[in-house]
Amino acid sequence: MKTKKPRSERADLLLQLAEMLKDDKQSLADAVSLLQRQANAEQGEQLNMPVDNWDDFNVRLKQLFRAYDEEQFDDLESAARTLHGFLVANNETERDEYWAAMPILYELNDFFGYAKSLKESVAARAIKVYGELRELEVEWSSKEPTPEERELARRKVLYCACGANELKRAGEIEQATKMFEWLLKFTTDAIKTEKFPCSNTRATLNYHLGSLYRILEKHDRAEKVFTDTLNLLHEKADEAPRNANALLALIRKEAMVVGIGYGWINYTRGFLRRAENALATALALLAQSKHPIIPSYIKLLYGTILRCRAGSNDGGIDNAITILLEALEEFKGHTSYAARASWELALAYNLAKRFDEAQKHLDFVIEHAKRTEHPKWLTNVRILQSRQYQKKGFYKEALEEAKKALSIATNYEATLPIVDSHLAIGEVKLALAKSGIDKSKNIESAMINFKQALHVVSESKLQDQGSTLPSNPKIVAVCELRLAECQAVLGEQAAARSHLAAWQRLEANVEHEWVRELAKTVTEEVKQLSLNFVISADNPNEWDYSKSIASLRQWLLQRSLQQTGQNYSKAAELIKVKRATLYQWKDDDSGKTKRARTQS
User: Fold this and answer.
1) Which DSSP string do the residues of 77-108 spell out, in sequence order?
2) How far is CA 402 from CA 253, 332, 418, 475, 526, in A?
């Protein structure tokens, strides 16, 4: 169905162009710009024309692909809604047009939300189609498929990729990973030929796989897969483009790989400078992009990096919050992305000790987690809620939230949430001990959680290939520092210094400022263990007899055990008391004075 612009409008356009070209070189640029705006307007009109039959559908679908490549997002929502409505009305789900259209309609629905049940229907049907493709693999092992069969299978692979993406969103990470791995293998081994390279399809599958490997903490594999993705996009750029602006879409995908791929991996591992470089590169590639999500998401990650770099610096945190608020504003109407931005804002405000503002954003994420029932979000919100309570001194509530987080994380076997839950539990117990509540019991219990967190990281074999460096140095560093902190509270200087030494081996590879600030605090606490016992002559608050005697005993206990290599008999002999007295001092959390039994 073609429409022609009225002759008067075309004549007016030609007259405008003629006037522009009479002047100078700048007018030529203006003329080109006018033609582009006119072309975009005509394309928008065509996109929004009704779809009455399958011929209309095919024409409109090609226009939709072109408009998406050219980022004409103002017209895409209504066009996608029309095409999807036609498919639903005709209910012919086995036509080639259906398989060609559904992947892009699924993606656009993610932005515009025009079909509420689309995600669920794709997720359900993709499992069946996936099974059919596996049967097709066996069938093709004994016959050569036609080009038409290859193309149909490729479209079905992309459809299944949408379903696998829904598994990822539901927290079924292992299942999603296995599905993407097989789809990539099938595409590479069975569908691809020299004349039919499927570069873009394989790049799409690789990109999703890279994000899943990142979640699984398989960072080396993720980086390799993202490199493969860039190579495939380079191959695609060498092919004849389907339209003059198809390269814009490739640049957008490259920016996603660099920013959301490499950038996020390096952020997760604590390599903030690398992450910042990747995100800055991605933002430069997207400088002119009109995409409704990708540039804003990269800005969100950039704000996250600024938060991690800020530590407790108020100016740095405020700068990060400003960027994150901009991203949140740009995500209006996109609930899942807005929840991600609110999550980062909750973390930033918590770091700044602005707990009420942190809670406001956390409450929004909590509601999102309840709606989606995603186990990762259900875990994360409880961990942050625990830290909110802990910093306010509500230790009972903090412990309950952290334990619930651990239960959820353990059920869906996610490494980082399990580690973070153990850390949160240990932090509450450590805070209780430092406040004088069941000191020995809580310290010992906290150490169990911190050691368990370290064990989970070690058991997951998160190591760089050919390196003794952990794949996630930041997490390992936090575990070691917390254990050093516990040992310092117990007065175990040698053990504390051993954990500090582990941190020092990782220090050059950990750029999160709050971790480095924690290291300074713990280092100072450990340093205090080796200082002389002093009571100020100028500060009457330090003259309390009972407290001073209790502190002196702890000092004598720590020094003597350090001097004798933790040998209680030799330590008792050194300070001239019975060995039983040392054990009594060690177990005494009450602060009450008792007469020391001296050696006769």
Assistant:
1) HHHHHHHHHHHHHH--TTSHHHHHHHHHHHHH
2) 38, 31, 10, 17, 27
Q: In the numeric block, which tokens belong to residue 35?
A: 């033609």
Which of 208, 200, 218, 257 is CA-nearest to residue 68?
Answer: 200
Which of 362, 410, 365 lies closest to 385, judged by CA?
362
* Positions in the chain whose pLDDT score sits under 50: 1-7, 34-35, 461-465, 590-593, 600
Read off the tokens for 262.
């490499």
Q: Is residue 198 a contact partner of residue 169, using CB atoms and an 8 Å limit?
A: no
Residues in the chain: 600
pTM: 0.77
d(CA 45, CA 361): 41
Burial class from Cβ neighbours inside 10 Å (0-12, 13-18, 19+) for residue 423 reads buried
Q: Which residue type occupies 196?
A: F
Residue identified by tokens 């495939």 is: 232
403-460 confidence digits (pLDDT tens): 999 999 998 777 889 999 999 999 999 999 988 888 889 999 999 999 999 999 877 6
* Alpha carbons within 13 A on the beta-carbon side of 390: 25
In DSSP notation, 291-355 reads -SSHHHHHHHHHHHHHHHHHTT-HHHHHHHHHHHHHHHHHTTT-HHHHHHHHHHHHHHHHHTT-H
384 CB-near residues (< 8 Å, 6+ apart): 346, 347, 350, 358, 362
Query: What is the residue whose two structure tokens read 């263990």?
Result: 529
CB-CB contact of 449 with 424 (8 Å): no
Q: Tokens in use for 476? A: 């390992």
